[in-house]
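Amino acid chain
________________
===
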Amino acid sequence: MGADDKLEAKGDQLKGKVKEGVGDATDDPGLQAEGAADQGKGHLKEAAEKVKDVFKKD
């Protein structure tokens, strides 16, 4: 796991931010929540990759 996973995590964050923005613009709370969830998923993936990187340095 490496650059591809990190890129996927950033993609999830960006996709979530766009969904949340569209939800805000259209006043759609469901889309806002879905966007926030996607961002959260991306942040968790990114954190997991950082932990893996710390253990790879040994």
Observations:
- The mean pLDDT is 92.
- The helical segments are 3-26, 29-56.
- The CA atoms of residues 31 and 50 lie 29 Å apart.
- The radius of gyration is 14 Å.
